[in-house]
Amino acid sequence: MAGDFRDKFAIVGLGMVTGRHLGVTARTLQVEATRRAMEDAGLKREDIDGSIDLRRAGGSGDRPGWTDAFPRALGLPVKFYFTLGRGGALAGLGIITATKFLELGIAKYVALVGAVVDWSQSQEAKERVKGHRGMGRALTKEGYWGKPFGDLRAVSHHSFFASRHMYEYGTTSRQFGAIAVAERQWALMNPQAQMYGRPMTIEDHQSSPVLVYPYHLLDICQVSDGAVAFILTTAERAKDCARAPIYVMGIGFGEAMEKLWWEKHNYTSLAVETAKQQAFSQAGIELRDIDLAQLYDCFTGEVLFQMEDYGWCEKGQGGPFVEAGHIGPGGDIPVNTSGGLLSAYHYGDLTGLSEAMLQLRGEAGERQVKDAEMCLVSGHGGELLSPGMCSIHTSSVLRR
Amino acid sequence: MVSARQWDKPLPNVDYDIEPFWNALKEHKFTLFRCKRCGAWYWPVACCRNHENEPFYGNMEWAEASGRGRVFAFNIHNVAFDPVFKDDIPYVYALIELDEGPMFGSNIIGCDPSEVTIGMPVEVVFEDITEEYTLPKFQPVK
Fold first, then answer.
1. What CATH number is associated with residue B24?
2. Which of chain B's residues have a Cβ under 8 Å away from the Cβ of A167?
3. Residues 166-195 (A) with a CB less than 8 A from some CB of B
4. Within a domain: A202
5. How would DSSP label each residue in A34-59?
6. B72 and A264: CB-CB below 8 Å?
7. The complex's ipTM?
């Protein structure tokens, strides 16, 4: 298998829209990000013949309305358009799907884009409902088990992981906090990050409100507006694009259902094992070959588990590992160099994909990791409590 | 008991698979999905993993369970993400490992949130919220 997939496909265009966009639709953010990605790649409207709309499609549905299709608004002559995604797992699923269309010759250039207007919706909800906090639509979301019990947000069940890891391995809140601080240090070097210009210390973390024990406010990700688009093509066509290609070396998938819920293995780790094995074997690499990593960080705990699950440290040793400064600026494995979902912006794993592109192109400004040649991007998402902690993990290895 | 009009929190999300579970709760019975062939317990509906299954869960049935378990993981909500929960904070939402094996998500009530610990034995308590619905919550075993 190794070498069969590696470097056959490449990302040739990136388009990002960050910042706050009250009064702008997700559709328009998708259109603008895609327009930027096409411009970045030096491609014309008529070149884009395939499209994938990356949506979380979780409990809230996030289904497109009848006017939503971004290729229609852009006038792209696409052969296919559909929605894809599971929670924060968007880019990895999008890439592997698009490669088959390219391989079969159904498409030459596939545009993939995801957009969120979570921040705008939270502002609108605040106007409507006094006392509302966080993302919009707390009560209209269907499909989750725990709504009547007050399981209203991802933190209402993701915090179980942290609670269990603390119980099994003695992990502390300060150790989770060390992750938040490290990512904030990266965000201070990213002018587009929502927390740019707002330094944070471990004391700030510890004194921030314990919104949902064991998580403090500063263990929890940002609520964002924005969009990320990218264009995937074959390695051969990539050579003719405007920018140096970023190659897909390997891609892999894991699912918490595999370690079936009754075995109760999947409460202190993510489904990294098979995803890593597939991606690294296609790429023909080992963990030490990875220069930097963009790991899904909806909460601080998810980063800690991945440090262990990928093997940067032993299971249970994630706390001391992150406290020792390995993942922040100057560390030996830079993690979430944009500031991540915690301190930059939350576009699912498109946050990690966009940062990987910027770093591998050498365009990350003050936060640029020296000699960044190979980057890992992970995605995560799905229903967590009902039925039984099912959640996808995606692992993509990119190189310049 | 309050009427649906007074109950301003979310109601359970009921489909045909889980309907018998909610109907049993109305009679204050806590049921799980059990294999008639080998007695293994599941929640929610599932095929029995110990052997081949009959069509449409034919070898499975909803059966009354102990309603007991232990706290496996938990959190304490100090914030109401929607104002309809503001009178409840701080409240505990927990993952409970039932004595029969399955995991179950519910509130721990009947004690101070600070008293909840992982491994704590708990038992079901029925909270009639409307004429239609009864919530299975859990309290420390006395």
1. 2.40.50.840
2. 73, 118
3. 167
4. no
5. HHHHHHHHT--GGG--EEEEE---ST
6. yes
7. 0.93
